[in-house]
Amino acid sequence: xxxxxxxxxxxxxxxxxxxxxxxxxxxxxxxxxxxxxxxxxxxxxxxxxxxxxxxxxxxxxxxxxxxxxxxxxxxxxxxxxxxxxxxxxxxxxxxxxxxxxxxxxxxxxxxxxxxxxxxxxxxxxxxxxxxxxxxxxxxxxxxxxxxxxxxxxxxxxxxxxxxxxxxxxxxxxxxxxxxxxxxxxxxxxxxxxxxxxxxxxxxxxxxxxxxxxxxxxxxxxxxxxxxxxxxxxxxxxxxxxxxxxxxxxxxxxxxxxxxxxxxxxxxxxxxxxxxxxxxxxxxxxxxxxxxxxxxxxxxxxxxxxxxxxxxxxxxxxxxxxxxxxxxxxxxxxxxxxxxxxxxxxxxxxxxxxxxxxxxxxxxxxxxxxxxxxxxxxxxxxxxxxxxxxxxxxxxxxxxxxxxxxxxxxxxxxxxxxxxxxxxxxxxxxxxxxxxxxxxxxxxxxxxxxxxxxxxxxxxxxxxxxxxxxxxxxxxxxxxxxxxxxxxxxxxxxx
Length: 494
What we know:
Elements: H1 2-9, H2 12-45, H3 54-78, H4 80-90, H5 98-104, H6 116-126, H7 130-133, E1 136-137, E2 143-144, E3 148-154, E4 160-166, H8 170-194, H9 203-216, H10 219-232, E5 239-240, E6 253-257, E7 262-263, H11 267-272, H12 277-295, E8 297-299, E9 307-312, E10 315-320, E11 326-328, H13 331-345, H14 349-358, H15 368-372, H16 389-397, H17 403-412, H18 415-433, H19 438-453, H20 457-476, H21 478-484
Parallel strand pairs: 5-10
Antiparallel strand pairs: 1-3, 2-3, 3-4, 4-6, 7-9, 8-11, 9-10
Helix pairs in contact: 2-3, 2-8, 3-4, 3-5, 4-5, 8-9, 12-18, 12-19, 13-14, 13-19, 19-20, 20-21
């Protein structure tokens, strides 16, 4: 009773801070149980089975699905960083098993919102004069995500705005969650070493994720990133970044211009609006190609709720929302990535291997064609073709797609490359949802890479001719390609 009385006597924000610490403690127990039960599940589900047998594939797929469902429930129940982790895993398309991405990608669209009296605590604490700043704030949230929810507000001028408010308990919960998850990662490392995976260490991966999430919790940084992206696209009329009101914002509250549009993956609604989905797809790809290859300021959370399309002068206009999760690519990485990309689209795997060695990837370079251009090194299919069932099965037969190898790859990937892969895969998925050809994305990225690397127009044109001549010969005149182009390594030779 004394504890209850003490708790009730605290200011409302302090109560939420206490709630956050309690939430974190409960989450720690649940996450620890998830890890323990998952390890036992895999150990006993696959025990005694012959690798690559039909029985093994079915049992492993079932174990993946059970684990993904457990992660989903943990993410939804605990919100905050756990929800973010679930979203992050759901975005690793073509890097981790599809059972995880299929189950967890639903986390990209929304989270259950808090009732307005609870979320208002943040307004009362961080913007105590909000009653005089806004004539009204609608109590029903129009969107909710891992860290915050959005409400419609109205200014004295009558202008409609979007007010993004962080969950009140996250301030204390995330600090505790970060410490807990780091300990859980250490526990995972110990379990892996016990299972003879001596070279696996997920701490570096966690530290990168931790750094990104810490920044995302500070809405002042999001406001700065939003302003930066507006400047980056100032000369691109078909890309729009809503303005932010700094006087109505803070570390946990962000007030933005209210804009409406259609989610990027809603092909049916876009067509009903009279928009050419081919134009929409190309606009999306060019926007992110510009970020990756030109500006180096990459929006790393392009899920459907953060990319809207509206009609402007009969053409699609892309609206970029939620600028909290960015990766700033170094000029050195951009130069390296341009070289790597051009080598990938010209099937120059000797150059890819050389560049990958400098990045510390070693023989794991053989996965880069798979995760960036969605083809194997041995593929004879045209550029932009998706992996066939037979090719996927062959990868499993050769034990190319195993837990230890994929985990080791994730550990070795430089953070800049990891986030470029994550972002590019989401762009590729949106392109496919719109019915766009996978090859189109590769062509636009190649155009952007050439533009970044070669400032001289004549040199760029000459290199471009060489690139597409090599692709043409590979796809249409293979005997001439083999005669002209130096022999490239294959997976089996590594």
